[in-house]
């Protein structure tokens, strides 16, 4: 925990009980964990459909250009001078980013008047506990790089494609995961499912090479792979995508 703070906020209920719905009374700002906070009390609630029958209480982070993970706990002071064990709420860890968060139905007006209005006032006590940022930096995904290396090394390949005089080695599982057509051919009931070497006649080696690289890595071809003119390779790739997508 980075730090904590609390505020005791006294609201003149008699003067504010007829405010418009979604109209707030604000506490003074207070410090907790290096941030500034305040309590927003809505004497007639925040939602029109609740017809002003509830007191709403929200906690707001007012520090500019900052965010904070915090837990907050809010109580009403009872007529016996003790904090209430029923009109109390505690949040989970919440990420504040210059907005408020709280409870639209903190307590009903019937319960409020009966138990918590003291000499025309209600007293709200709120504690804020600011937590350390426990997020763990996540390194960038390198699965495309690793699959590209796997393709280049030919380690573990279990199927090959022969196109003209060139042979391309690949992995059935990768192709099946990326293409429903390959999945049907290589893992289904088609003849190719039992063949270790498959001859293709409807695609050029250059086009298949680029397509295979994309299947493994999601990498688009570089200018040197498109050939001259590049429009021909692009047309061939579109045809291959339509065939194997």
Describe this structure in words.
The structure is a single chain. A hairpin with a 2-residue loop joins strand 3 and strand 4. By secondary structure, this protein is α+β, with helices and mostly antiparallel strands. It has eight helices and 13 strands.
In short:
The protein is 28% helix and 35% strand. The chain has 245 residues and is of the alpha+beta class. A hairpin with a 2-residue loop joins strand 3 and strand 4 (35-42).
Walk me through the topology:
Blueprint: E1 3-12, H1 13-16, E2 25-26, E3 30-32, E4 35-42, E5 54-61, E6 68-77, E7 83-90, E8 94-96, E9 100-108, H2 109-115, E10 121-131, H3 143-153, E11 159-163, E12 166-170, H4 172-178, H5 180-187, E13 197-199, H6 205-217, H7 223-226, H8 230-244
Parallel strand pairs: 11-13
Antiparallel strand pairs: 1-10, 2-4, 3-4, 4-5, 5-9, 6-7, 6-8, 6-10, 11-12
**Shape type:** rod-shaped
Low-confidence stretches: none
Tally of separate helices: 8
β-strand percent reads 25-35%
Number of strands: 13
Helix content: 25-40%
Rg over CA atoms:
33 Å
Q: Characterize the main sheet.
A: 5 strands, antiparallel
Order of helices and strands: EHEEEEEEEEHEHEEHHEHHH
- What structural class should be given to the helix and strand makeup? alpha+beta
Q: Please, what is the average pLDDT?
A: 88
Distance between the termini: 51 Å
